[in-house]
Amino acid sequence: MDGLRAITRTFWIGGMWIIGIIVTPVLFSVLDRGTAGMVAGKLFSAIAWVGLVCGVFLLVDFIWRDGLRGVKSATFWLIIGMLLCTLINHFAVSPIIANLKLQMNQAAEGLFGGGFATWHAISSLIYLLQSLMALAYILRRDS
Asked: Which UniProt keywords apply (predicted)?
């Protein structure tokens, strides 16, 4: 079970970091903004689903190993926090961004640009918070 736990952490957190730190900046450096944004959006959506599956597995595994006393552990709350970030970004913020993108395509960018930039910044901050929680989770000995 330790091996499966390690693979799950690596797949979710490693994927998050690779997409956010390496892949997305490369996309925007070699593709036009529209194409890069579309591909990055698909990648962030894919890693969100990976995060939901892996996060639930890690949470169930943690509770299975530590029982209800695990609720007092920082590891438990880090997993919950990362899952919440995923849920908020994927099901609340991303649909708003997608809707604003549609509006931007149908009207002048200047009219809707501020809303898009604001929601994109909120999404980026949530992703950063999730990445920092992931770092804390990886560095814990009881994970």
From this structure: Membrane, Transmembrane, Transmembrane helix
pTM metric for this prediction:
0.88
- What pLDDT digit, counting tens, does each position of 55-89 carry? 999 999 999 999 989 899 999 999 999 999 999 99
3-class secondary-structure state, position 143: coil
Q: Kindly report the backbone phi and psi dihedral angles of residue 107, in degrees, each rounded to the nearest multiple of 5, phi listed first.
A: -145, 180
Rg (CA), the chain: 17
Chain-centroid distance, C-alpha 136: 15
Residue position matching structure tokens 């899952």: 83
CA distances from 110 to 35, 96, 98, 105, 121 (A): 20, 17, 17, 11, 17
Which residue type occupies 47? I
Contact of 98 with 83, CB cutoff 8 Å: no
Structure tokens, 92: 């609340």
